[in-house]
Amino acid sequence: MATSYPQIVLFGDSLFQASVDASTGFSFQSALQTQVLRRFDVVNRGFSGYNTSNALSILPNIFAPPSLGGPALKYLIILFGANDAAVQLPTNFQHVPLERYKENLVRIINHPIVTAHKPKILLVTPPPLDEIRVTVLDRANGHPAAMRQTKRSAAYSEAVRQIAAQHPAITLVDLHKAIMDRALEKTPGFDPKKSKNGAALGDPESGVRGYLEQLLPDGLHMSAESYQVFYDLVRPHLGSEWAGTKDENKVGFVLPDWRDAPWLEEDDHLMGKSI
Prior knowledge:
GO terms for molecular function: hydrolase activity. This is SGNH hydrolase-type esterase domain-containing protein. This protein is an alpha/beta fold. It has a single domain (7-241), classed as 3-Layer(aba) Sandwich (Rossmann fold). The protein contains eleven helices and five strands. It is globular, with a radius of gyration of 22 Å.
């Protein structure tokens, strides 16, 4: 029977689908795979345009129940919400109401197929939105208004925080906060407390995109720098199985280091015979 590698699955929308791309200088998925090489397979199950209702409908097609010889789901990283938070427009039907979004996420993390594997689950807040940029692009693409709004997107990120707080076994990865903190750090002179109604970067009420222009080039999807921020958040949660061990450079390998492989004894035996 072939050896199966345990899996780290990235389950989400276009933000995960695009995480494999290295053309911008940094690949989130590649960085993860490098970190866990020979121990886990990082499997990309990102689906552009999908919301949490779509995710629930396809979940049985993505994950198989545990089976002898089948890959075990050890880590599940979930990132949905950018599409759920879309505004209801005649030209777009991705929106999922906030309460249903929360219910869907709870159903995903508690789905019998998922829980049967007993994975460590990382629940990610969707990143912030640059509504100023999104508005320009959406109108240019024929929509009557912006398909997404800064404050609405922030509410969906807050919902993820609430769900993580209600499920102690779930690990929260606050991508929204991390990217916004980076944007504020690199936008000198901007203080959301002093902007109109406390409006954030990217909100038309503040009128300031600031460094979000670099972090969210089209207002929605992440740049290489944003993916690096994301990776820095996730990295500490992987590898506790071997971190700090005597031979952590090879502990946890699915197949042994060549120096420890059983065939070495066979080779030594044959060499002794030939001598």
